[in-house]
Write a structure and sequence with these properties.
single chain, mainly alpha, 2 strands
């Protein structure tokens, strides 16, 4: 019983990591109808910021807002010029732009941070273990679960229960009407993009404690985020949460029971779910700007 409980906690921690990678992508798609394939680069940037922050001897808990701000500023700068000109264009044009930028950013980070695999120097209390029914479980994964759930709840409240979330959805539905109310829609979109990028960076700062940082992690993260968002339903917050749980549990338990088929299991489940529900587990109408 204790063994299966530990594996469930492992699956939850991996699901939370998948959720953190997918939330920013889902946010931009649901609120702005924009496909942003640079999201993996924001994740990797946040991971590197967290690693170098800890290497400098600064507190771990401050590495999270530092990664959030660094990636958020990068997202805001991208919004000011290239992204802003593509918000009303087709998804294909957005994919070509953002995927090309993601390749450029990957090379820049390889040049700036090196090609070695880097791991964060976590404080001693985060490297400890907690005992679950007598079995040890990494304390860092428990912290990741708690923080991930709290962040998901905070983002849901911000998008669904605040005036800002209402304004952003109104901008997507009818940008012209919102501008007649003297609301600067460019600033609204810039803030949404910065928030989504910051979430990616924050996910990276948390994720490197489990998987380290290395060139190519951005592409792996982007693939995982796309799987979560597509399976959940494009731009659907609740679907993103559900698909992260499904894929996280499938991947974790397949690694335990059939490690040689772990990658096939997650991709196979994704294909089966899309065949069953091509529109995603949950759907929400996405309107054009």
């Amino acid at each position: 019983m204790a063994y299966y409980l530990v594996q469930i906690l492992n699956a939850l921690s991996f699901s939370v990591l998948l959720l953190l990678t997918g939330l920013g992508l889902s946010l931009v798609l649901s609120l702005m109808n924009f496909v942003n394939l640079t999201h993996g680069a924001f994740y990797l940037l946040g991971g590197y910021v967290g690693i170098y922050w800890l290497a400098a001897g600064w507190p771990w808990w401050l590495s999270l807002p530092a990664a959030f701000v660094a990636a958020g500023v990068a997202g805001w700068l991208l919004d000011r010029y290239p992204f802003g000109r593509f918000y009303g264009r087709t998804h294909l044009m957005q994919v070509l732009l953002t995927y090309g930028l993601s390749i450029i950013f990957a090379d820049l980070m390889r040049w700036g941070f090196g090609a070695d695999t880097l791991s964060p120097a976590l404080p001693d209390w985060l490297r400890g273990v907690a005992f679950v029914l007598g079995m040890p479980f990494p304390l860092y994964r428990l912290v990741l679960i708690v923080l991930g759930v709290a962040l998901a709840g905070l983002l849901w409240w911000l998008v669904e229960r605040t005036l800002w979330g209402t304004v952003v959805r109104a901008c997507v539905a009818d940008r012209g009407i919102v501008e007649t109310l003297c609301i600067d829609t460019r600033r609204v979109f810039a803030f949404a993009m910065a928030l989504a990028a910051g979430l990616g960076g924050l996910g990276g700062a948390l994720g490197v404690g489990m998987q380290s940082a290395y060139p190519g992690l951005d592409e792996e993260t982007l693939l995982q985020a796309l799987m979560v968002v597509v399976v959940g339903g494009l731009g659907n917050f609740s679907g993103t949460v559900l698909s992260a749980l499904v894929l996280g549990f499938v991947t974790t338990f397949s690694r335990v029971w059939w490690p040689e088929f772990a990658s096939f299991a997650s991709l196979g489940v994704m294909a089966a779910l899309l065949l069953w529900r091509p529109q995603g587990l949950m759907t929400r109408e996405v309107r054009t700007v």
